[in-house]
Amino acid sequence: MSTEFDTLTTEAHRPELAEIDRRSTLEIARTMNAGDALVPAAVAEQLPAIAAAIDAAADRMARGGRLIYLGAGTAGRLGVLDASECPPTFNTDPGEVMGLIAGGPTALVEAVEGAEDSKELAAEDLARIGLTTDDVVVGVSASGRTPYAVGAVEHAAEQGALTIGLSCNAHSPLAAAADHGIEVVVGPELIAGSTRLKAGTAQKLVLNMISTISMIRLGKTYGNLMVDVRASNEKLRARSRRIVTLATDAPEHVVEDALNATGGEVKHAILVILGEVDAPTAARLIEESHGHLRAALRRALDAPAG
Length: 306
What we know:
GO terms for molecular function: carbohydrate derivative binding; carbon-oxygen lyase activity; ether hydrolase activity. This is N-acetylmuramic acid 6-phosphate etherase. It is an enzyme of class 4 (lyase). There is one protein chain. The protein is of the alpha/beta class. It folds into two domains: 9-218, Glucose-6-phosphate isomerase like protein, domain 1 (Rossmann fold), CATH 3.40.50; 221-302, Helicase, Ruva Protein, domain 3 (Orthogonal Bundle), CATH 1.10.8.1080. The protein has helices spanning 2-6, 25-36, 39-45, 47-62, 73-84, 86-90, 119-128, 147-158, 173-177, 198-217, 234-248, 252-261, 266-275, 279-288, 293-302; strands at 67-71, 97-101, 136-140, 162-167, 180-183. The longest helix is centred in the C-terminal third of the chain and has 20 residues, at 198-217.
């Protein structure tokens, strides 16, 4: 095991930091910040691989597939976090983007010993949610060797699902097992082996990209506006009005009328204003355009008058 760990950059020791505990707090903070600044560059090196994975994922999701993250420890928690943010941001169903962590919900707040070492547990978790060939399974592991993450990708591949492996070591078993391997090599941590630091930051950045850009590809935004927001309280109703105003530059009363006519549906209200159609027509055009507002707007503007 020690020989195996010696080959992992995420586990490497930085001898120049052997007496970091004797430095001032400001010096330690500066050292840590300097290391963190290297993470975006490491992610940038993987952008072609990330983009290819996202395009493939969006294709599956457009067919009704789910985006499913699996990981253990910090990696698993990051997947659950990213998944949990999709419903409020993109109005997705909670089942559309899911995060599964080795050991179940208890592992979100405390260590569940041994859970990460089981490939079989990953297969069981995926079977429990009814994995399909349209689904996208993303195994997340800083080392790229965690059995739970590797097992998830291997089982998903056997079932015909699309697989993505995200790790922070080169030549990882996780990336090798996946259709799309993403290896963001951030180097040794400030505290040797504490992969919640740079590795965790790198994983969070990539997961942000996978979920956000997939949603853009699926028509969940109009430009950089969250047009699939659903107004369930006053704050969200105010946000809806602001989004429609930004998208259309229409006066307040026009925005209010459009939102009232469409039952508060932001996409429909924007189409009513920009496409100069009534609410039922807006709903039909958006459905025919599979939820893509720009495509619906083109249909509205290209339609013959009268």
